Amino acid sequence: MEPQKDLVDVNFTSVMEFVLLGFSDIPNLQMFLFVMFLFIYVVTLMGNGIIILITRTDQTLQTPMYFFLSNFSFLEICYVSVTLPRMLINLWTQKRHISLSACATQMSCALMCGNIECLLLTVMAYDRYMAICSPLHYPLVMNHKVCVQLVAACWITGVPVEIGQTCQIFSLPFCRSNQINHYFCDIPPILKLACGDTFLNEMMVFTVAVLFVMIPFLLILGSYIKITSTILKLPLATGRAKAFSTCSSHVMVVTLFFGSGIITYLRPKSKNSSRTDKFFSLFYTIVTPMFNPLIYTLRNKDVLMALRKLLP
């Protein structure tokens, strides 16, 4: 029996690297996917970069709303850069291997960016709540110092939790297949490869998802219920239209990001599907960062005017 035990121990530690399968199930479309995701990456970098530039240089955009938007655009650049470059390399070279340390780093960074985005979207909703529901107190409450503190709190809060969660997941033994049926190192496909009881890890994932996804979403929902109630009480239709227009872009981004995140991390395990996971992950890691500049530019007159000033 003793040799058998040794063999099991060796199997537990035999996985030294993973293979990111990504979209290898559609081999005929590899070059098309490479071109498409490269285009998305360039558009995302340029779009969010322009948002950062105009919100920092245009004097008419020196308000808390656009301060948060510039930080949000910077976060989107970080978020998309965690997953897309590795995906592009895998599509181009067809070499899909990733070391345990690189996989853990990618997971940790992706989860941090996701958590920070949830918190930052909540802060942006609070900013809109104060601007519309308490306009007289807004300049005093949302001064520059408070805005910087809120953004710093978002970045600091998301980091230690996800480092701890990543360490917990990668302390598990991996003795099954080393093939990750995903385009990046996400929690659900990694846990499928772990041996032994993963109940505690799954509960940790659920708890973190409730704290960083569900609670912020409910806070945003509550803010917009109050905002909608206040807007409907405004006497002039033009005032109502303007108030709604300042919130509509944020609502669209929240719907895209939180909708896909909640489906991915909070749906029952029995409903898990690798293909479904990949589909919804595309929304919160790639689609939202790409559409963020378009949503805020096309639906915001101030940003459009600042953009026209920037262009020759």
Task: Write the SSE topology.
Elements: H1 2-12, E1 17-20, H2 30-57, H3 64-93, E2 97-99, H4 100-133, H5 138-141, H6 144-170, E3 179-180, H7 187-191, H8 199-232, H9 237-266, H10 274-298, H11 301-310
Parallel strand pairs: 1-3
Antiparallel strand pairs: 1-2
Pattern of helices and strands: HEHHEHHHEHHHHH
Question: Roughly what is the average pLDDT, rounded to an integer?
Answer: 85
- CA-CA gap between termini: 78 Å
* Strand fraction: under 5%
Derived structural class: mainly alpha
Describe the global form.
globular
Number of strands: 3
Counting H and I runs of at least 4 residues, what is the number of helices?
11
Alpha-carbon Rg, integer = 22 Å
Strand order of the largest sheet: 2-1-3
Helical residue percent band: over 70%
Low-confidence stretches: 1-13
The profile of the biggest β sheet is: 3 strands, mixed
Structure commentary:
There is one protein chain. The chain has about 300 residues and is mainly α. Helix content is about 75%, strand content about 5%. It has eleven helices and three strands. The protein has a three-stranded mixed sheet with strand order 2-1-3. Helix 3 (about 65-95) runs antiparallel to helix 4 (about 100-135). The longest helix has about 35 residues, at about 100-135. The radius of gyration is 22 Å and the shape is globular. About 35% of the residues are buried. The model is unreliable at about 1-15 (pLDDT under 50).
